[in-house]
Amino acid sequence: MTTTYDPFHPRYFDEADLREELTRVYDLCHGCRLCFKFCTAFPTLFELVDRHDDQDAARMTPAEQDRVVDECFNCKLCYVNCPYIPGQSEWNLDFPRLMLRAQQARARNGRLSRRERLQNQALGRTDLLGKVSSGPAAPLANAAVSRPGSVPRRLMEKAVGIAAERILPPYARQRFSTWFTKRRGPERRTVEQAQGQVALFPTCLVEYQNPAIGKDLVRVYERNGIECSLPEGQVCCGAPWLHEGEVDRFVAQGRTNVRVLADAMRAGRDIVVPQPTCSYVLKHDYVDYIGGPDAELVAAHTHDAAEYLWEVHKGDGTALDTDFPGEVPEQVTYHAPCHLRAQNIGYRSRDLMQLAGTKVSVVAECSAIDGTWGYREQNYENSRKIAKKMADAIEAAGNDVVTGDCHLANGGILQETGRQPVHPLQLVARAYGIPEED
Questions:
Q1: Hey, which residues does 198 pair with through a beta bridge?
Q2: What span, in angstroms and rounded, lies between the C-alpha atoms of 32 and 27?
Q3: Whether the Cβ atoms of residue 161 and residue 376 lie closer than 8 Å to each other
Q4: Which residues are 362's β-sheet partners?
Q5: Topology of domain 176-314, CATH
Q6: Can you tell me the distance from the alpha carbon of 146 to that of 152, in angstroms, rounded to the nearest whole number?
């Protein structure tokens, strides 16, 4: 048996080696069953093995193995809960990484359908789509995609397989980088001295679709004496390519970001990311798929936006401004995204909101968007079934205000509940009395 999750290994893309590893891991998962509740991939796996009297995972066909791969959206919650992960068990089991390997082998070995290739192109080229659709073109682009079930959306579904009924995030009239470049200077600081310097990795979601998150991040940071910069040359983190197996494209984009961000780090700046999928990529996936000292340097100094602020609050010789004269809701619901939970840093957004004076109800159920998986037409119905637990928990919490760090998951919350969440740092900004900016 081989346990290979190393993309540099000569047998990483070998089909026979992959099938052997799938059989080994599926057998272990079938015997454990701890992860039955996270998604449909595990119940499907268990049912396929249970069909056989001897319950031998080796009896699964390649098509059945691939069905499990297709139903996994790489939320990584199974890894967080798995007792057999590398370093904790001789079994060295990493289910999310194995699913990525299977997707990558499928792409490398020419087993993607034409429709899958079109979907990957449409969902992977986030910078191209963002540049074309934001700015002056935003009203036209939004008119075309903002109405689920409309004729343009149904045509889009037929052409590239993006679900016609899925709510898509609108594009912004002004990109975050444009705002950042044009702004006149730092906001008034309420601390006596600088407490840090950070390089922002705003992500394509903030850059092209919701710059308000980035604006509030900058203004909250500067209120607390944290100097923000925006290094030139950044591109999308590449997560859409990685999650659908296009590892070469992912590596190409990742190398660009590693070079830019490592230079910023050597200039004395930590790296701050306001979206959890992208911070996970910088912290973990660049080390695994690119490697080298620069990738390790970037990983070691990358922080989630709330994580960094909490470190300042709890730091030796640093402190947050805890005067919150602005509007603070009495109670809020906080959705903890999967890719943030997978980072094992705690609920720092919840902690910041509590520091501002609000009572927080935490919902930790998955939105089943997870990158681009939930946008795809073939996954849409399954995604919504999985997200129902999240929606029910949000409704049960009963709070008027819903917050969440992940813009993609927030779109799923809007889809399932009709409520538009805000990023936790936006709630903190309003608590500071920082006005919302158009």
A1: 228, 270
A2: 9
A3: yes
A4: 334
A5: Rossmann fold (3.40.50)
A6: 10
